[in-house]
Amino acid sequence: MQHFFEPIQHDIEHILDDLDQHGFAIVRQAHSEKFTTQLLDECLSNLNQFREAAIQNGVISKIRSDHILWIDEKFPIAQQHIHLLQEFSQAFNRAFFLGIQSIEAHFACYNTGEFYALHRDNPQQKNDRMISAVYYLHPEWQSDWGGQLRLQDKNDQWHTIEPEPNRLVIFQSDLLHEVLSSKHQRLSITAWLRSGNSIWSSE
């Protein structure tokens, strides 16, 4: 596989510790500046292909209003981001015995006034999404633009996470969370690290 970026070394032990203690972790500079520019360009050049997000069976839900584009082999730059998540998956499997086997991901665009109400990506263990990962693509962000990720950690504490550029937020897929209404175009990649039969130590 051709690599379009030089990977940044991440403190995986810190990520693992945060996941274990709180159920989520934040990587503040996930990629190099050159790669983030390429990834943003790939996203922007395909905005005309984005469609309204559906919950299941193609049914549009009122709990979300964002637009998405699923990532496949036609998006070689985004595939490199998924490659990073695959490397993280190996560490998560070793630490938490999650048995992660695959990753699904899409670009997401929240235009002005768009949001995603409170939900869980894996409610009551009804699917095989074990870890969710949101990476912010937009080149700049101001706190009064909204669009924050509001998340309840495994200790029932609430956190409001700013969608800062080049930030990656990783969290258990069964945690309750929402995306607050955005006042500016908000671009991201949402991914799910998926497993068949998995065990998460959630005590």
Class based on secondary structure composition and strand pairing: alpha+beta
What is the CA-based Rg, rounded? Answer: 16 Å
Walk across the major sheet and give the strand order: 1-11-8-13-6-5-2
Which superfamily, in CATH terms, is the homologous superfamily of the domain at 15-135 and 157-174? q2cbj1_9rhob like domain
Number of helices: 3
Largest sheet: 7 strands, antiparallel
Unreliable residue stretches: 197-203
CATH topology of the domain at 15-135 and 157-174: Jelly Rolls
Give the CA-based shape.
Answer: globular
Number of strands: 13
Give the distance, in angstroms, between the N- and C-terminal Cα atoms.
Answer: 39 Å
Give the CATH level 1 class of the domain at 15-135 and 157-174.
Answer: Mainly Beta
Q: What order do the helices and strands follow?
A: HEHEEEEHEEEEEEEE
Helical content band: 10-25%
- Judging by the overall fold, what is the CATH architecture of the domain at 15-135 and 157-174? Sandwich
Strand content: 25-35%
Provide mean pLDDT, rounded. 90
